[in-house]
Design a protein that fits this description.
Length: about 475
């Protein structure tokens, strides 16, 4: 039975697949962890060539955006749409030609043309050559008329796909270029710093990869560059605002946590993301389409996911009559008023009121009051209704006056102090919701937003800081030193 949580789906291992995987383990055992350099490109390509060809697909060599590759064209393709496929191989191995059959399978199942890019490989071409080529190929597809572009990748190509997804989304927000419609990644390598627990915990059950192998190929690609640069490891990037993402990973591979942790961070940032975890499956198992039942099902899920996220197919859901209009009076006696070290937070709309999209809080801050230094991985916007505050953002101070609106980007350190000589009042929105629960957990209920609360004693302040520090990570918040 398939088990599903809010953002993770667990798929059981079938008896037929267990036999196939067992036979495969014996076949590949001599090569485990040994494909680390250019001399292994031939053997690696031979393995990937085993993916069966799909009927009705025409293959041709093309150069798109200055990047060579293989164009996989189905008989009747979706108009003005394309898939950019970024192959795996630890940034050292792999080729478009070796991956053409997998690209053809995806083209056939999605009825969409697929371009498998031959991005430059290390050690001949170190970081950021792969990123530059992926970016160029994506821009080339858009320039050729693709209005819907999805990005798919596996292993290192999966990490590269997620990096590209963030790059083009950032450009689109700035009015440059077109954002991707969605991304699907298989066994993605998202953390070249190699910090995932599964690198060690799954070492014995992974028949292909070893941590030492990834350390060698990663060093070859990075050539001394910081492994935690988001352009090298998407695990460390700002994931807010990304298009929908689908991840597939097996439990018998050391990159299990690379997929799971990325999915968790993306979900916390408000991204529509689903992580499919396949019991007993190995690295990039969907390439065994036609052999593994799990591979066939994963490709089916991939195709259905893309079909629901192509821009041309997007439709607004029907009106939900169970949700009603909210008209809030800040002096409504039924509202919750929470005192947090002297400031009063009136919860106008909670996450439960907005289906988890945001929370809206009316803040009353006495002279010299205000939250201490902190940061969080979500956006925060507030409008100053009355008074003046001194906002410190990344160490720089700025005076904010009544009527001004401020947006604090995710992950940026900040705090403010009321300097008006009187009570200041702010209307604050946090997206996604969650901070309302944090304030309820660390604060104390008071009668109204105008209730005068005594300044906490040193002992009370120490107890508050301890409790807030313990709860902050649960709400994706970090308290900083003054």
């Amino acid at each position: 039975m398939t088990m599903q949580s809010e953002s993770t789906v667990h798929h059981p291992l079938t008896g037929a697949d267990a036999k196939v995987v067992a036979a495969m383990r014996v076949e590949v055992a001599p090569f485990k962890g040994k494909l680390t350099g250019p001399e292994a490109r031939g053997p690696f390509d031979e393995v990937m060539e085993h993916t069966p060809d799909a009927a009705g697909i025409r293959y041709e060599k093309r150069v798109i955006g200055g990047v060579s590759g293989i164009w996989c064209q189905p008989t009747s393709a979706r108009p003005e749409s394309a898939i950019l496929y970024l192959h795996g191989g630890a940034y050292v191995l792999g080729s478009a030609n070796a991956y053409r059959h997998l690209g053809g399978q995806l083209a056939a199942r999605t009825n969409t043309a697929v371009f498998v890019a031959d991005y430059r490989l290390a050690p001949e071409h170190a970081f950021p050559a792969a990123v530059e080529d992926a970016h160029a190929a994506y821009r080339g597809l858009v320039e050729q008329g693709a209005k819907d572009v999805a990005i798919i990748g596996d292993s290192a190509g999966g990490g590269l796909a997620l990096i590209l997804l963030s790059l083009v989304q950032t450009e689109a927000r700035a009015g440059r270029g077109r954002a991707a419609s969605a991304a699907v990644v298989m066994s993605p390598w998202t953390d070249l710093a190699l910090t995932g627990a599964s690198l060690d915990e799954r070492a014995d059950v992974d028949p292909f990869l070893t941590k030492a192998m990834l350390a060698v190929t990663g060093a070859s690609y990075l050539a001394g560059h910081d492994a935690r640069d988001p352009l090298a490891s998407p695990q460390y990037g700002n994931l807010a605002g990304l298009p929908p993402i689908q991840l597939h990973v097996g439990t018998s591979e050391i990159l299990l946590d690379d997929a799971r942790r990325y999915g968790e961070r993306a979900r916390a940032a408000g991204v529509d993301v689903t992580t499919h975890v396949w019991e007993g499956m190995t690295h990039v198992f969907p390439s065994s389409v036609g052999t593994l039942q799990a591979a066939d099902e994963a490709i089916r899920l991939l195709a259905a996911f893309l079909d629901s996220n192509w821009t041309a197919n997007l439709k607004l859901p029907p009106d939900d009559p169970s949700r009603s209009l909210s008209v809030i009076d800040p002096d409504d006696a039924t509202l919750r008023h929470i005192s947090v070290v002297g400031d009063t937070y009136t919860i106008l709309l909670s996450g439960a009121d907005t289906a988890g999209r945001y929370c809206l809080i009316d803040m009353t801050v006495p002279h010299c009051g205000g939250p201490g230094p902190h940061r969080h991985d979500f956006e925060e916007m507030f409008t100053l209704l009355d008074g003046e505050i001194e906002l410190t953002f990344r160490g720089e101070k700025r005076l904010v006056k009544a009527g001004m609106t401020v947006n604090v980007p995710a992950n940026a350190p900040h705090f403010f102090t009321n300097v008006s000589g009187k009570t200041s009042r702010l209307l604050c929105m946090c997206s996604p919701a969650g901070q309302d629960d944090f304030f309820v957990s660390v604060g104390k209920a008071v009668a109204s937003r105008t209730t005068v609360v005594a300044k906490p004693s040193d002992q009370e302040m120490a107890a508050f800081i301890k409790k807030a520090a313990e709860l902050a990570p649960r709400y994706h918040t970090e308290l900083l030193e003054p």
